[in-house]
Design a protein that fits this description.
It is built from two helices and eleven strands, in the order ββββββββαββαβ. By secondary structure, the protein is α+β, with helices and mostly antiparallel strands. It is elongated, with a radius of gyration of 17 Å.
Length: 149
């Protein structure tokens, strides 16, 4: 079993021997057993609070094999609006509820929730249910790792 202790920045040119496809929630686990996409056992032993992002590379302390993190498509609600102000208001209300939220210029994305869906629809926003990689914000004080949309 490969025990992964180091997170390296995303590097598309790096050759990874394994890929590990994880949901947004699974990417917040710093100590956990997983299997790579091809069935190789892996153990994450990363600093507490580590949040993995799509493209990150993991490595064991005394092993130069690399594992690439892939954001797994999952059920989400993608919220769009007629104006940036409407989207900003939605982000404010969702933030007050401490909802994990992916924030982009043209949309907000969150896990499906019928109560939140009703609130957003009442605000006049458009909601599309889809299955895509979910990459919520990691928090202003947390383990941030830049990513682009």
């Amino acid at each position: 079993m490969l025990t992964l202790t180091q997170r390296l920045p995303a590097n598309p040119a790096a050759i990874a021997q394994f890929t590990l496809t994880l949901t947004a929630e699974e990417r917040t686990r710093s100590r956990h057993y997983f299997e790579s996409d091809n069935g190789h056992p892996l153990y994450l032993h990363l600093p507490r609070g580590t949040v993995l992002q799509h493209g990150d590379l993991l490595q064991a302390e005394h092993d130069d094999r690399l594992v690439r993190i892939v954001a797994k498509p999952e059920a989400v609600m993608t919220v769009t609006a007629h104006s940036p102000l409407e989207l900003l208001r939605a982000a404010y209300h969702l933030g007050n509820r401490h909802v994990s939220l992916e924030v982009a210029e043209q949309y907000l994305r969150l896990s499906p929730d019928p109560v939140l869906r009703a609130m957003l629809e009442q605000m006049g926003l458009h909601i599309r249910e889809e299955s895509v990689p979910f990459q919520p914000e990691t928090g202003a004080y947390g383990n941030t790792h830049a990513h682009s949309h």
